[in-house]
Predict the 3D structure of the following.
Amino acid sequence: RTYHQYSSDLFSDLTVDMLDDPARQRKPWYLWVNYVAPHTGGPDAKDDPKVLHPDDKSPIKTTTPAPEDENTFDWLDLPRTPDMFEEDTSDKAIIRATHRTVDTVHRQEMREARQQRIEALQSVDRAVARTVRTLRSTGQLDNTYIVFTSDNGYFSGEHRIRQGKYLPHEPASHVPLMIRGPGIPAGGTSDELVSNVDIASTIAQMAGASPQLAQDGRSLLAYAQQPSLRTTRPILLEGDTGSNIDDEGAEGLTTQDQSDFARFQQHVRREKKKLRRRCKKLRRKSPRRAILCYREGVRNIEQEPVDTIYKLRAPAYRGIRTDRYALFLYGTGEVELYDMWRDPFQLKSVSKNRRYRNVRKALLADLDRLARCSGAGCTAALGPDPRPAKKRKKRRPAKLSSDRRVQVAPNA
């Protein structure tokens, strides 16, 4: 069946039709609604980057807002957080590899893309509000749990990444999670670390069901009902799509791009040789840092649009997030470590800081166990975060008092 309707409005209509059905209201039900907005899609608008900048080989892709929402946020600028267009990314294993800055044209494209994403989300807001109103009018709201979340965040210039969602840094891995329902206090906020892997266990408890398979996640219902409840359970972050690091190539190369791409391929071959030598050494000296060697991540660090020229690849990674720290281990063996208490925007990795040597060692061991866990072992608490070593006080040179100065005779 073909629908000639904006997708969010269509999903809203279908949702309301199901909730209004008296036959469904007489027994428990489960409804999962996935809105397309704000994903990219057509038709193209006259202010889309690919229309305004036809010569751009990799324009920022945009979404399409509902007609009533077009240009309602044309005043909105890009965020001004400290991580936006970060000047020094030398501490970041993957982002450093891009070797580029974001020019004025692409910043304008990113601004337009963000405006359109916010505009597209207005239709989702209306759809969710309409769902709640329908539950209330049909007498089902007080006996219904609502879980609202997203599968990923998105880069919009943070750490010099124009767009995409693959990397484990906060802009891509931090997502909203809201729960409403019986026994949950209104307006409560929990600081407990949670993950999408917890959602299945949460829904099972809400429904009074007993999962037949071992659950790597845990129910979040207790933390929603009692927001002050805290544990030291860490979160595992993973990005791993295969084992082949040799699948290179570029599609759709124009004649003028051939020489440029050939030079880039020479760079890729050199980097692969370095990677093989590095992995061989790591497997001897630091096996825990070599567990992802040769694993492939994604072909393009920004994912959308596909960079047909340079293929800014991002290798596989595993990461661990605790209350205080975020540690990322890449397929290259490189490690990033951030003290989130002191550096919430992840501007400076302290992986090579001597004060954090024991922290890194402990977190790598925890990551190794967490990546191999199954079932209840995945929700075990770690205990308090390790502290960095104290700063060494610099010794000041001793000063001679005035009455003890050594005097040298002129003829000595």
Remarks:
- The chain has nine helices and six strands.
- The longest helix spans residues 104-137.
- Residues 147 and 179 are 5 Å apart (CA to CA).
